[in-house]
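User: quick one, sequence for these tokens?
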């Protein structure tokens, strides 16, 4: 069974930076895609970054492109999300997700989820 354990997050002022990490275990991830989603109160869960593990292809929606970036440690099966120039509207619970297949952009496409990590950006 795939497990995703998140770390990082917290409180930061607008314009600051935070890093989230997701340690994956229990699977052979070369055929997986992994992603970070976020969900603010009263809003739908939305994609903020995704990567196809085998190729390294990444996708970022316009809302975070140029501010957020993914990095990975293949040996440790760890996916990191570096978030820069944070804005109050980035405040949300951030989730790591994984699926065995091609990169997807919708939450229902992902099978495995982390526990969530709160990110709060103050103005």
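Assistant:
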């Amino acid at each position: 069974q795939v497990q995703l354990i998140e770390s990082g997050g917290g409180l930061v002022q607008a314009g600051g930076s935070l890093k989230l990490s997701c340690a994956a275990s229990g699977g052979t991830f070369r055929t997986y895609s992994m992603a970070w989603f976020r969900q603010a109160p009263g809003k739908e869960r939305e994609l903020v970054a995704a990567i196809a593990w085998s190729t390294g292809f990444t996708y970022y929606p316009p809302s975070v492109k140029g501010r957020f970036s993914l990095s990975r440690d293949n040996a440790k099966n760890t996916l990191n999300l570096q978030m820069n120039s944070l804005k109050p509207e980035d405040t949300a619970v951030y989730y790591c997700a994984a699926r065995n297949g091609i990169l997807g952009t919708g939450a229902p496409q992902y099978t495995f989820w982390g526990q969530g990590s709160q990110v709060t950006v103050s103005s």
